[in-house]
Amino acid sequence: MADDDRLFANIRIVLLAVTAVVQTGLNAPPLLRHQADYRPAWAENAAFAVLALVTVVCAVWLLRRRPLPTPVALGGAVVVLAASVVATAAQPADGYFLDVHWSFGLVGWHLIVLLVDRVGVLVGALAAHVLTSVTQFVLVGDHDRAEVGGAGVVVLSVLGFQSAIVVITLVLRRQARLAALVAADRDRIATRAALAEQWERDRRQTFAGQLGATLPLLAGLADGALDPSDEGTRRRCALAATQLRRLFAENDDVPDPLVHEVKACVDAAERRGVEVSLAVSGTAVAIPTVVRRELTGPLVVALSHARTRARVSVLRTDQEVRVAVLADTEPGDGIVSTSPLVQVESGTYGPRTRMEARWKPN
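Now predict its structure.
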């Protein structure tokens, strides 16, 4: 249950308690005192019992913090209005809107409990209640100016107080909803900020890891410890360049990230003069970044060892994703690549080395 719904449920419980206290504490004593004045008394007592029963029925849902079903709310409102008519009809002619007329103010509380979440219906029910009571008051006989004025004061004061309670309830509910929306927006912003920070941190760590392998190579070339003309040094440089090129491509926003990263590796090899052919089949498949990194890992290794030509293929299906490369390499290179996330197969066939990475989506 949302915070605003929980607050509204608590408010309805308070309204239910107020209604029960008003009926038993404020209306039961005058009902008992004026038993001899009612015509007939049994109708007045029956109306009181019906209103008490409505309170009990509402409590079945409201005390469990559940909204009243529409049939219960509307049916209860009809029953309450009928009880009001019966109770008012049994009033003595000179008792309307006085202490003996206990039902007038109480009925409004019952209608609020039943219909507070249906404002339009509640307004109509309260209007019907007041109109019916005033009509019965007018039809019972002639009234002097003092009686009419007293009745008007009672009607306005009761209706004004109960209307204020309804307005306060609705305002509190609206404010709770606004507060819940603000809190949800704040949580979303905080989550996005945390995700962005985590992404930035992961990216820095990835770059740091790649540069950590590259910096010793650059330092060795700078201080003369490594010979640029040495075949092993050139392969290390080719490997570092391909890794960095693929790493840069990993952060590009493209429709097909895997093919984009594969093309980045191919481009790095072609810049070294290697003739590379690329074949792609299947449609783009959603692949996590870390898995794409592992899928292209064997490709990076193989292309960095390629001498003159290589053939790269990418196959995507719903069941499997494959990245394979066949490159001409120096005999005895002993190229090896492993991964904990994807299945890697490699083999040397004379002057050619074939490597393939496979990943199966869950």
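The radius of gyration is 41 Å.
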